[in-house]
Specification:
This protein is an alpha/beta fold and 457 residues long. The protein has 16 helices and 12 strands. Strand 11, helix 16 and strand 12 form a beta-alpha-beta unit. The longest helix is centred in the N-terminal third of the chain and has 35 residues.
Length: 457
């Protein structure tokens, strides 16, 4: 096998080719979800108002403890600190009350940002909404809530300070008059509205087409990963390259997947029921055997597990050999072909030999009888689970391994090569069932593995 066929990239490509429907389905779901989300998203608008922070001087002790904003001494900290203080749940709740349209305080906090303008004492209040008018209303309500809430909080602080000072001696009331003046003003002098939100603008976001395009890319990527993961998690062999690499032999035939009705039935398939493509594959194998071993050849069709397609393959090979004018005999190890299959093979001139399931001597006698009546003997063999019969077959015939994609277990296939090595009888070739007919090369256009000459066993 070409080294490129066993690379991870090649395996990934084969997974995609097998499971392209999974990739397409995941991508379609992603695009549909993106389209629904984009249509529900609607237009988005923002409106911006401005607040001006007028901080108290650091050394000013008149309003100490009043909660008014004070200069931090660092121009980069005063405004950002004020922005964090003003983006509060209390102010959002006051804004929601002023809107009186069912908007909650949490929604106000989510849709309003308070941003400090770098190197200034200006704060921008940016509100987002589905309409321009809604954005302006939200920004205006938040600005009003800031002024009203700060006035209420500062007034409460000033009232407490005044009450404390009034209990002190007259000489310790130096700030009392200033505090009373500030209280009568009824506002926080350190926060002012610099600009009301007068306009709204549509936000620049991804277009619906861009969102769908990104969803398509993401969906295809997830679909590719899903397809590869499904292959990795599968317990059955799915890849011709993996099958032939595990066996260490090249495939003599690549038989396309049977029709669904035949697969579901589970019985051996008669040669007349095979597709034209499948029949041509078996005829190619029969042609090679006929050219190299016109008489005396004995082949045993074996497989890693049960129901891999041994009987179907053995019967199809016999029919193809008979079609070339060779006398062929089919030896059944154990269960004989069904009545319909037996009748069809008999009509094609194939001799049927059975009764070879009770030991190596019986099997050897059955093969000898078959050789007397035929030019080529094909044995419908066994799986790895019948080690005794497999050893007997290995001493009498060339082994042809059948692997059925989507059915043969990976673990049993991995053991196959070791078992044949212990028997001292490596298989001469493989027949891979269940390949995709659409990806196959025409029989006459590809190199076939050479069938060993008749000088061997």
């Amino acid at each position: 096998m070409d080294a490129g066929e066993s690379s991870p990239i090649a395996a990934f490509r084969r997974s995609i080719a097998r499971r392209w429907l999974v990739v397409a389905l995941v991508a379609a779901v992603a695009v549909a979800a993106a389209a629904i989300a984009a249509s529900a998203r609607g237009s988005q608008y923002t409106s911006t108002g401005e607040l001006l922070i007028v901080p108290l001087a650091q050394y000013d002790q008149t309003y100490f403890g009043s909660g008014m904003f004070r200069d931090s001494g660092d121009a980069t900290l005063t405004a950002p600190t004020a922005a964090e203080v003003l983006h509060s749940y209390g102010i959002a709740r006051a804004a929601a009350t002023r809107l009186a349209d069912g908007t909650s305080a949490d929604e106000v906090l989510a849709e309003v940002r308070v941003i400090a303008v770098a190197n200034t004492d200006v704060l921008q209040v940016v509100a987002s909404a589905r309409s321009g008018a809604g954005a302006i209303r939200l920004a205006s309500a938040f600005l009003d809530a800031v002024i009203r809430t700060r006035a209420r909080e500062v007034s409460a602080d000033l009232a407490r300070q005044i009450a404390v000072l009034r209990t002190r001696p007259a000489g310790a009331r130096s700030n009392l008059d200033a505090l009373r003046v500030a209280l009568r003003a009824g506002r926080d002098p350190t926060v002012e509205v610099a600009q009301q939100p007068l306009r709204a603008k549509a936000t620049s976001s991804l277009s619906t087409a861009a969102i769908i395009a990104l969803a398509l890319v993401g969906g295809v990527f997830l679909g590719l990963l899903g397809a590869f993961a499904l292959d990795l998690l599968s317990s059955a062999v799915l890849d011709e390259a993996d099958a032939t690499r595990a066996l260490g032999v090249a495939p003599w035939g690549r038989v396309p997947r049977l029709e669904r009705s035949l697969r579901q039935r589970g019985d051996p398939v008669a040669p007349s029921q095979l597709s034209r493509r499948a029949g041509s594959e078996y005829e190619e194998i029969a042609a090679q055997i006929a050219r190299r071993e016109p008489a005396g050849a004995v082949y045993a069709v074996v497989s890693p597990s049960e129901a891999d397609g041994r009987t179907t393959t053995a019967a199809a090979l016999c029919a193809a050999l008979a079609k070339r004018g060779l006398r062929c005999a089919l030896v059944s190890v154990g269960t004989a072909p069904g009545a319909q299959l037996s009748a069809e093979l008999a009509n094609r001139g194939v001799a049927l030999v059975s009764g070879a399931a009770d030991g190596a001597d019986s099997l050897s006698k059955a093969v000898q009888d078959a050789q007397e009546a035929a030019d080529v003997v094909v044995i419908d063999g066994v799986s790895l689970r019948r080690a005794g019969d497999l050893a007997a077959l290995a001493s009498l015939a060339r082994l042809l391994v059948v692997v059925r994609l989507g059915h043969t277990p990976k673990d049993l296939l991995a053991q196959t090569r070791t078992v044949f090595a212990e028997l001292g009888a490596p298989p001469v070739g493989a027949v891979v069932l269940g390949t995709s007919a659409s990806r196959q090369t025409p029989p006459g256009a590809r190199k076939r593995a050479a069938v060993p000459d008749s000088g061997q066993r």
